[in-house]
Amino acid sequence: MPGALTLEEIVSRLGGRVAGDPATRIRQVGSLESAGQGEIAFLSGAKHRAGLAATGASAVILSKEFEALTPLPRIVSDAPYLYFARVSQLLNPLTVQAPGVHPSAVLGKNVKLAEGVSIGAGCVLGDDVTIGEGSCLYPRVVVYHGCTLGARVIVHSGAVIGADGFGLAQDDAGRWVKIPQIGAVRIGDDVEIGANTTIDRGALDDTLIGEGVKLDNQIQIGHNCRIGAHTAMAGCAAVAGSTHIGRHCTFGGAAMILGHLTIVDHVHVSACSVISSSIRKPGTYTGIYPSDEHASWARNTAFVRQLAKLAERLRTLEKEKKNNA
Amino acid sequence: MPGALTLEEIVSRLGGRVAGDPATRIRQVGSLESAGQGEIAFLSGAKHRAGLAATGASAVILSKEFEALTPLPRIVSDAPYLYFARVSQLLNPLTVQAPGVHPSAVLGKNVKLAEGVSIGAGCVLGDDVTIGEGSCLYPRVVVYHGCTLGARVIVHSGAVIGADGFGLAQDDAGRWVKIPQIGAVRIGDDVEIGANTTIDRGALDDTLIGEGVKLDNQIQIGHNCRIGAHTAMAGCAAVAGSTHIGRHCTFGGAAMILGHLTIVDHVHVSACSVISSSIRKPGTYTGIYPSDEHASWARNTAFVRQLAKLAERLRTLEKEKKNNA
Amino acid sequence: MPGALTLEEIVSRLGGRVAGDPATRIRQVGSLESAGQGEIAFLSGAKHRAGLAATGASAVILSKEFEALTPLPRIVSDAPYLYFARVSQLLNPLTVQAPGVHPSAVLGKNVKLAEGVSIGAGCVLGDDVTIGEGSCLYPRVVVYHGCTLGARVIVHSGAVIGADGFGLAQDDAGRWVKIPQIGAVRIGDDVEIGANTTIDRGALDDTLIGEGVKLDNQIQIGHNCRIGAHTAMAGCAAVAGSTHIGRHCTFGGAAMILGHLTIVDHVHVSACSVISSSIRKPGTYTGIYPSDEHASWARNTAFVRQLAKLAERLRTLEKEKKNNA
Known about the structure:
The structure is a homotrimer.
Chain A: E1 5-6, H1 7-14, E2 17-19, E3 25-26, E4 28-29, E5 39-42, H2 49-54, E6 59-62, E7 74-76, H3 80-91, E8 100-101, E9 106-107, E10 112-113, E11 118-119, E12 124-125, E13 130-131, E14 136-137, E15 142-143, E16 148-149, E17 154-155, E18 160-163, E19 168-170, E20 176-178, E21 185-187, E22 192-193, E23 198-200, E24 207-209, E25 214-215, E26 220-221, E27 226-227, E28 232-233, E29 238-239, E30 244-245, E31 250-251, E32 256-257, E33 262-263, E34 267-269, E35 274-275, E36 283-286, E37 292-293, H4 294-301, H5 307-324
Parallel strand pairs in A: 4-5, 5-6, 6-7, 8-11, 9-12, 10-13, 11-14, 12-15, 13-16, 14-17, 15-18, 16-21, 17-22, 18-23, 21-24, 22-25, 23-26, 24-27, 25-28, 26-29, 27-30, 28-31, 29-32, 30-33, 31-34, 32-35, 34-36
Antiparallel strand pairs in A: 1-3, 2-7, 19-20
C-alpha cells in the first residue's frame, strides 16, 4: 500500500492545479459524506453542494466552476471523477493478492504464467493455459484448457472461462446431440472479469474478448462471441452465441443481446433492454417496459395484447371520417 | 437430527391445538401428496382438499375452518404454513454441515470465527474477515478481505462476497480507469445467501445487508447498496450500485433494480419487473411485458413502436370531432 | 483424441453419401471461414454460399440441393448440421477430463461413483451422493448431500446442485422463518449442466431433471421443479419453484418461468420472455418488449401507462360515431 502524498505531490504526478495549502497530506480517498482527516473526496456535480459544505474531508477534487464553493484545500481538474480514480490508484493497489501461485491452486500441463501473475486459492487452470504479465486471478477461478489471458487481466472469484458453449443438434427423435466445442477463449490485455461471470469457449473458432473490456459480475458470454476493445458491460448482462460487438460500447445491467447479431462501435444499450436485431448505427438503445403500481400495470397491460385491434379500430374511425368528409 | 415427537409435545412447544389422538408420533414433515406413516403435512387452502382426502400422512396442520375436513389427527393453527415451518425446524436441522473449518478451506490472516461457525470444503476467506456465532458457509464460498458476517448467517456454495464493485472512470481516449474498491461488505445476523449469489464490496463506504435479509440464488448486489432488515429477494434478482432498499421489502425472481435509487420499507416488486426510479410509497409494483403465442405477440408488438403515433392520431380524431360539434 | 478418417470411413459409420474423392482424409471439423487442410466444414443454408466458394476446407457436408455448388469432396446428408455434430463426435472427445477423482476433490460419506466417472479438481460431493457411469464433473462443481446424477451427465465448473431451495414462512413481525429443505435433486441420464448453473433441492419431495435435458450456463432451477426429458434451456433462463415443464421443450436465453406453473410438452419459449401462467398448448410463446433508439423508446413508452385511457378514448369516439349514425 503506497503511503501518504501531499496535494502538491499529487498534481506533480497527475496534473491539475492546487488551490489552498499544497502541503495538505492525503493518505486515502473517501466520499464527501464519510471522508475524514487525511482523506480526499470529490464533487461530481452541483447537486452534491450540501455534502461539500458538510464534508470532513481534508481536501476535495472539483472542477473550476465549483472551485469557490469551499475553503478546503482542493485540486481543480476538468474531469474530477477521472482524476479521483487516478488519485485512488496512487493510494491503493489495483489488486490485493500477492503475485505467485497459491498452493491450493491446480495447474494443468503446459500452463504458462508470465511474470507477476497471481493465482488465488482454489483456482483451476486446464492444460495449455497462458496468462500474461501481472494478471490476477482471485480465488476459485476456473480457466479451461487452451484459453489465453493477456497482461494485467483481473478475474474475480467464481468466474469460469472456457466451459463448453451450448452447441447442440437435434436428431429425428428430438434428442440433443452435443457438438464438441473445440475453440477456446482469448482475452486481451487490461480486461477485468467479474465474480461468477462465464465466458464460453468457441464451437470451432475462438471466443474473443478485446483489450480493455470490462465485464461486471454474473455476465454470460456465449460461444464464438467477439467483444470489441474497451467495451464495458454491467452485471447480469448476457450475449448469446456468435454475436459480434464493436469497440467502446456500453451495456447496462441485465442487458440481453441475442445471438448471431452484429453491433457496431459506440453503441450504448440501456439496462434491462433486449437487443434482438443487429445495430448498424452508433447511439443509445433502450427497451425497458415500465413498472407501475400493480393495479395500474394490470389495467394498462391488458391492452398490450389488443394493440393490433386498437390500431385497426382507429383506422376504421379514420376511414369513416374521411369518407364522411 | 432430532428424534420423533408426539402432537402433544409439538403443541406444548409451538402452541396451537391438537384434534384427534395427541399421542400420534411424528418424525418428519411431508407434502400431502407424498407424506407417509409418521409424517405430518399441511393444508394451505381449500384448493388442496382433494389432496387432504387422499393423503397418507399420519397428521395434518390446518386452520380452524378446515378442521372438520379430515378424521386424521391434526394440529389447528391460525397460520398453518408458518406452523409447518416451525415443526420442520423441530424435526430437521437448519444446516447440515458440522461446525469447524474443513481442512481444504483457506483462511487469510486475522480471520475471526465465532463459536459454532462451520466453514465448508474449498471456502476461501480473505484477511481480516469476521464471521459471527453459528454461521454456516457451505463449500466453495469466497469472502474477500475485510468483510464481516453476523451470527447465524447461512451462505450457499459458490456465493462470492466482497469482490470489487464495478467502478470505472473513462479517460479521453475512451479507455476505462479502474477505481480501487476500498469499502467492504457488512452482513447482519440471520441472513441467508443463495448459491452463486454475488455481493460486491463498496467503492468507498461499505455495502450493507441488514439483519434477517434472505437472498436466493444468483442474485447480484452492486457496490454501496444497502438492503434493509427482513427484505427478501428471489432468484436472479439484481440491484445495481448505490441503491438503498428499505426494510420488509420483497422482490420476485429476476426483479431488476437500477442504481442510485431509494426504495422505502414495505415495497413489493413483482418477478421480472424493472424498477428504474425511486419508490417512495409502500405497495406492489409490477412491470411484466406479457408473453403470448408468437404470431399474436408479433402482431401486437409491432404497434409498441407506434404508440406515440397512435395517440397522436387519436387526438386528431378527437379534435376534429370537437370542431365539428 | 481419435485419429483421422477418410470420407468413406465416415459414411460407413454415419450414413450419407460421398461425392468426390472418398479417400479424402479428415482429421478435424472447422467453420467454412477458417477450416484448412484436413478439415471438414458444413453448409447450413443458401446464405452461406459465398463462404462455401471461398472455403479452404478439404471437404464439406451439405444437403442434396447444394451438392452441385462446390467441386470439393463432400458428404451429402439430409441433415447436415446433425451430421456435422456426429462427425465432430467421431473426431473429438465429448469431455476432455480423464476418469478418476482429482486428489483435490472432497467426497462425503457413502458417495457412490459408477465406472468411468470423472471428478475434477476442487469438486465437493456431499454425503450419499450417487453419480452414474461415465459422468464428468468439471472442476469446482458442488453436489449437496443426497443428490443423484445419472449416467453420462456432464456438469460444468461452478454449477451447484442441491443447495437449499428458497423456502420461507413469515411470522407476525415480518421476520422470515426458514423451512428446512429436505428433498434432494435427481438428474437423469445424458443431462448436461452449464457453468455456474444452480439447481435447488426440493423442499419436501425431490427436484427432478429428466434424461437428455440440456441446461446452458447460469440457469436457475427452483426447488420442486420437474423438467421433462430432452428439454433444453439457453443461458440465464430461470424456472421458479414448483413449476413442472414437459418434454422436448426449448427455452431461449434469459427466458423466465414463474413458479407453480405447468407447461406441456413441445412448448418453445423465446429468449427473454416471461411466462407467468401455465401453458396447456404446444407452440411458440414470446414476450420481448422491443428495444429502439432511446428517444423513440421514451416517446412511445410514455404511452404504455396510458393504454387503458387510450382504449377508453377510442371507445368513446366509436360510441359517438354510432350515436351520430
